Amino acid sequence: MITVSDISFSYTERPLYEKVSFIVGKGQKVGLVGPNGAGKSTLFKVLLKELDIQTGKIELLGNIALVPQEVKHDPNMDVAPTIRDYIDPTHSHEDHEMKKLLHGMNFDEFELTDKPTDFSGGQKTKLALARALLAEPDILLLDEPTNFMDTEGKRFVMNFLGNYPKTLILVSHDLELMDHAIDKVLYVNPPLKTIEEYKGNYSQFKKLKEEKDALLKRQAVVADKAVKRMQEAVTKAMRFKGKKGVRVRVQLEKRLDRMKEALPELPAEVRKINIRLFDPPPVGELPIKAKGISKSYDGEEFIFKDLDFTMYRGERLALIGPNGAGKSTLIKLLMKQLEADSGSVEHSEGLKVGYYSQEFETFDFSKTLIELMEHASEKPEGMCRAMLGRFNFVGDKIYQKVESLSGGEKTRLSIGLITAAPSNLLILDEPTTYLDVLSQRIILEAIKEYKGTMLIVSHNPEFIKELHPNRAFLLPEAQFKYWDERLLDRVEEM
After folding, report:
1. 3-state secondary structure of 64
2. Can you give 111-130 as a three-state secondary structure string?
3. In angstroms, how far apart are the furthest CA atoms of the chain?
């Protein structure tokens, strides 16, 4: 059971929560929702007492555990000699139970005797989830547990969570998959700096929230019209130069200021955000060409052998293959971030790449947001502030270090950095992984208008479909195919 009473929290002078109260009962299944950057991951850290609240009180009954969005360094994983020792440290489960659970999560490329630190970030997240589910803590906090799974894996996990015997708070873009099990929704409301409680399942919450937003939008439109009328009255009053005219104008200006302060701040779901990518600078007919490249790790089995790869200027290419097929490795080879064991990779003269990585390898986590934007754009601070503001990084937020951001905020920042400088090749490796539905739509609409060359990896079939690829490159076959919507079935298998 969780009881939160009048808590306030802020990273800077701008509060994230103010006098927030809510209760989560024993055995409840709770969906925690809100726009990216609203403070969902922060709330988990507050409940775990990893962050200190400024005011209020938190009471927890029972033990609590968290599976975060990203698992890169877990002290328990670092010292565990095998997967078996990591996910079942008390040795209280049979091997077949562990294998069944991991199989349901699309994690078949393993032996229980394998070393857990040898796997990728996404695979480590699956192992951390398996460890938590087998341990059955009294309160389980899950932050986007299905990010690295295909549709079948997501359904398996959500069904498993629906039957979880203890208290569960879940952040996920796939809450519809366990809609029947949710009995409460906590909505993080950034404009009001509060957390609202909605009784019932996720579908009921969405309906109530849409009705509330529609009402708020109508109220904002009416209030905005009143402000414009008052501005016109102030303008007219400026024509009168006498004492009475000045007195009237001052009174009107005071009323106008009060009306502006009272304007309701629209939630992100009903605001329109426009992002426009630069027109691509000139580049050759073949921006990237690879000939006969081979790659293996530690001299063992080849990931690729004698692979040929060519991209044509202006085309959109979908890179499709299951987890572990080598998609991210191929991208790093094409970008010359990794060196092939044999073969060659050629870049056209004038090639400028805008690169998004789901692992955020391009970030210096010790830098602040404004420092990264200044470096990426080579623009003065004032312009960088404006560019960050388009992605909802405002006020003191721009001076936070990247390491403090949530997964969704890092994604928004990464896309912001890509849009800050002209490129003629976009390489997007799972750009929707940490994004809520609204943010996914914003990013999609922006890159749909991009006129340069594009290489994209995504497990979201709708995202791929709307980009209208010209070709697909299939792994592990290492084959090009002209685009056919039947290939979307392969996307869902990723």
Report:
1. strand
2. CCCCCHHHCCHHHHHHHHHH
3. 90
- Residue 289's closest CA among 317, 318, 309? 309
| List of residues 6+ apart from 287 with CB closer than 8 A | 311, 312, 313, 347, 348, 351, 424, 425, 453
Residue 161 dihedral angles phi and psi, to the nearest 5°: -70, -35
β-bridge mates for residue 58, sequence order: 4
Strand order, beta sheet including 64-67? 64-67, 139-143, 167-171, 29-33, 184-189, 194-199
Look at the block and give the residue holding tokens 């870049």.
347
* CA–CA gap between residue 305 and residue 341 (Å, rounded): 9
Whether residue 131 contacts residue 101, with contact meaning beta carbons closer than 8 Å, is answered with no
CA dihedral over 236, 242, 247, 250, signed as positive or negative = positive
Q: Which two tokens stand for residue 442?
A: 């914003």
CB 61 within 8 A of CB 1: yes
Q: What is the mean pLDDT of each run of 10 residues along the chain (494 residues)?
A: 91 82 93 86 91 91 88 83 91 90 83 86 85 92 84 85 92 86 91 88 86 70 68 68 66 70 56 66 93 82 88 94 85 90 93 83 83 87 82 81 83 83 89 73 78 90 89 92 89 68
Nearest-angstrom CA–CA distance, 111 and 405: 34
Measured in degrees and rounded to the nearest 5, phi and psi for residue 409 equal -65, -40
Residue-wise pLDDT tens digits, 181-200: 899 999 998 878 889 999 99
Q: Which residues contact 267 (CB under 8 A, 6 or more apart)?
A: 35, 189, 190, 191, 213, 216
- Give the model confidence (pLDDT) of 265-308 as tens digits: 555 554 555 566 778 899 999 999 999 999 887 667 788 889 99
CA distance 451 to 316: 10
pTM > 0.70: yes or no: no
Measured CA angle at 422 (ends 348, 448), to 5 deg? 95
Encoded amino acid at 105, one letter: M
Sign of the CA dihedral running 110, 143, 416, 269: positive
Distance CA 150, CA 211 (A): 32
Q: Is 369 helix (H, G, I), strand (E, B) or coil?
A: helix
pLDDT attached to residue 24: 94
